[in-house]
Amino acid sequence: MLSRFWQLIAGPRLAPSSPAGAGASDMALPSATGGRVDDLARRFPGYVAPMMVLTGVYLLAAIGFLAWVVDYASAGHGAARGSVVIRIGWLLAAAAITLAAWDPLLRRLASGQRSLPNCLLALGATAAAALLLARVGAEILIEHPAQVAGGDLRRSAVQMNVLTRALGRGTVTIQGFDLPPDASTDATGKAVLALFPSFALPDSDRSQADVGTMLEAIVARDIGDAADSYNHMFIPSVRALRDAYNNYAAMQHGMVAAIGDIPASSAAAWRKYLAGLALKKTAPRRLAKARWKENAAAVQQSGIAVADDWAPDDRRAFLAAAALGARQRIDATFAAQTAEQFGQPIPPSLTWQQFLAVPAVQARWRADLHAGTDVVLSPTLTLDQYKETVYQPWLWQITKQRFDRLLARSDSFAPGGAQEATGENTVRWMIAVPVLLGCAMLGVLFHGYRMLRYMLEIGIPGLRQRGLIAGAVVGGLILFALAVPQPASFRRAVAYIERGVITHFGMPTAIKVWGFVQLEPWLYPAGEELRSLIDGG
Fold this sequence. Notes:
The chain is 73% helix and 0% strand. The protein has 19 helices and no strands.
């Protein structure tokens, strides 16, 4: 059945050469109908259609992947999602290798040189081998170097990652590496920033004061400036406290109402007590004194704390004990409700100002605003007061934490150190970015060439020079992209990267990096649209 289906879309197999002495009837040409089938097979080979679809899907995925990696790396996100990006990258590499191997296999199947079962087996084996090859390549090129990297390299990678974020946001400058203010939104600027941590020259002259200033600017961008914090944190916190006070007042109203019901509930308890004695065919005055203690214990078990020697007919003492017990239960309920909301019980009957002064309320408020333990918060704080007492200390605290981690000893990043995982993941990402971008770019160029060949094979049947034409078109596009001068605003930055590549990796790598910086801006717009479409726009 499958063989018949393939003959319908690809045409019959070519007849083998007749052995010597074969009759003329054995070498007869196909009928008119068979000739049309052969012509259709020549004009539109069956393997071209699925290969065009698969290649087109790969090209869309690879171009979108290029834009995704450039966006992610240029923003200095580091290794937060690096493992996911790397996994997708080597899956795309496996897809590129698989498609390159499938073309000759399907071509042989279409020409009758290979049977369908054997071809299907070869296709599956090729895909599995390509997947294994890509995985081994990722292990050799990315995983192993990251695992054996020393503490110095790991610390440098973390520092370069932070520096990339600062450069992209315009919060720091480097001598000789001049980026325009809109670098983080320009395709060329993103390509340069994406490669900066992997290839830039080390900036050993940067002082600790410069690093602190850089980190403070980064933190300020992460958490917002003082005005943003005031408008989006402080003011909503005051509103939340007003709501909490209204809730506190509602609980207090419920408490007052429950206290007002105490006389009625106490009287009801007395009537219930009398009814219980009546069921026993007795009354308070008829109980013998020897049974008073037994009777008091029964009343105590009902929740009314009368004295052990309480007289059974002492109604006033009974009502007082019942009222006291009810009030204690009401107070306990109120304390539990306020403790659940504020962490510890709050006394009743407080005004708004008294409520705000309660230590538990102040502690909860300070925690929400990341304020220091010695800060006394007030809803009337102005922006300047808030910036001085709350925002600036919070900013300095976060900056100091990052500063201490960033400038820690190298053994802190080495295997077994406190920041081992951070250092290893960042090195892995620093190595992975150029590898993933280079593989994806080569895959796009190679399979772009194959796509043109398929289009020529369908559009111009019998054209033997289609490979040469497709290669000339792709090569011409590459030369055109390489020949277009870089924007003047990025030339110094690109030259800075090139010097770093030549110094540490040599001229061949520098040429590849320069080629990527030249070519990626041409692919980025399409990749950005694809990425936005995948992300939901």
